[in-house]
Amino acid sequence: MDKFKAYRIFNENNKISGRVVTAERDELAAGEVVFKTAYSSVNYKDALAATGTGKIIRNYPLIGGIDAAGTVVSSSDSRYKAGDKIICTSYDMGVAHDGGYSEYCRVPADWVVPLPTDLSLFEAMALGTAGYTAALAIHLLEQNDMDPANGKVLVNGATGGVATLCIDMLARLGYQITAVTGKDGEHEFLKKIGATEVLSRKTLNMGSRPLEKALWAAAFDSVGGEQLAWLTRTMQPHGVIASFGNAGGIELKTTVLPFILRGVRLIGVDSGFTPMPLRRKVWGRLATDLKPRHLDEIAFTITMDDLPGYFEKMLKAGTRGRAVVRIS
Ligand SMILES: NC(=O)c1ccc[n+]([C@@H]2O[C@H](COP(=O)([O-])OP(=O)(O)OC[C@H]3O[C@@H](n4cnc5c(N)ncnc54)[C@H](OP(=O)(O)O)[C@@H]3O)[C@@H](O)[C@H]2O)c1
Questions:
Q1: In angstroms, rounded to a whole number, what is the distance separating the alpha carbons of residues 292 and 106?
Q2: 248 Cβ closer than 6 Å to some ligand 1 atom
């Protein structure tokens, strides 16, 4: 493993771009656990980071990829040994620490999650940060009384990575799901993975009153901006919203009325720094009661060479589901 392939991101004359390079072990960011990467994945944050569209990376050059799964080669931390299968996502991966687009990774032992027995390394990365975020959002809304008996659940930005996995998981739990998408050609796909009905964002009448007709018992939002504001105005009394994304904007203009007259709860979801006991619990659920039933339809494989084109497509809302990056 002295020399190996990695996708490194550079800032050259204030232009951010990435390419496949030959890397060396000694160049990798420090950590106790070295592993051979089997798969990584592509999240929206990876596309923002690798193209410079978002200021994600804190030091250049850096190997990209906020997700990785693989097999331990060596560990100076007694919790892990050669041969262990592990997942490493979040924290500073692909942000300030070399990430998963690399045949070998070296990471702090505190960031490592043992691969649950009922998941393969491929499945772990078909889920990745997207699946983890969907499961964490479901877990948090359940703690806020979300229940299939309460009414319809809306999933916004429905063909995205987090959203497709969220739909699949919610359907498994017995929820009635309304998917909202900007892609008119994907309605059948969304129904196949578990949506009960699909609304086109292009023809959505969002109204403008502080409180509109109460429609949703719960909502999962990848989009932010006007769409999230509309959700606050259309929740049922005591409805719960998980806000985890900003694919459509970072602003939120609404009033306090949904919160004080309908008791709507807006729950923030941050996958990056969840405390480890909760992180392990959520990964345990991803391997059991929340394990998606349509991963084969949602996930597909690409290579490191495909990354630049895929990032561009993702930033234009042109992708569907989850790209798993085959590393070795
Ligand atoms: N909080 C966290 O810890 C966390 C973790 C993971 C992801 N995220 C965030 O969650 C969001 C989704 O991530 P992802 O990896 O699932 O990305 P993704 O696969 O690119 O999904 C985003 C989806 O949002 C919709 N969309 C894109 N641009 C839009 C626009 N301008 N207006 C309305 N809808 C738009 C599209 O779905 P349709 O075409 O079907 O509408 C798109 O497929 C991102 O903002 C990401 O940064 C946050």
A1: 29
A2: yes
Measure 243 CA to ligand 1 centroid, in angstroms.
11
Best residue among 222, 298, 324 to mutate for probing ligand 1's pocket (most ligand atoms within 8 Å of CB) is: 222
- The pLDDT of residue 2: 82
Q: Is 223 in the pocket of ligand 1 (CB under 6 A)?
A: yes
pLDDT at 231: 98
Distance in Å, CA 253 to ligand 1 centroid: 19
Question: What's the whole-number mean pLDDT along residues 172-186?
Answer: 98
Residue among 44, 180, 191, 227 to mutate when testing ligand 1 (max atoms within 8 A of CB): 44
Give this prediction's pTM: 0.98
Q: Give distance in angstroms: CA of 314 to centre of ligand 1.
A: 9
Residue 243 near ligand 1, beta carbon < 6 Å: no
CB 8 within 8 A of CB 63: yes
What is the mean predicted confidence (pLDDT) over 82-89?
Answer: 98
Q: Is the CB of 244 under 6 A from ligand 1?
A: yes
Q: Quick one: pLDDT at residue 77?
A: 98
187 lines ligand 1 (CB under 6 A): no
How many angstroms separate the Cα of 77 from the Cα of each of 6, 80, 143, 235, 283? 25, 6, 34, 48, 22
Q: What share of the chain is helix, strand, coil (3-state, %, to 5)?
A: 30, 30, 40
Query: pLDDT digits over 222-240, tens only?
Result: 999 999 999 999 999 999 9
Cα 161 from Cα 169, distance rounded (Å): 13
Average pLDDT over residues 120-142: 98
Residue 192: C-alpha distances to residues 3, 162, 167, 179, 218 (Å): 44, 16, 10, 12, 21
Average pLDDT over residues 71-89: 98
Cβ 317 under 6 angstroms from ligand 1 = yes
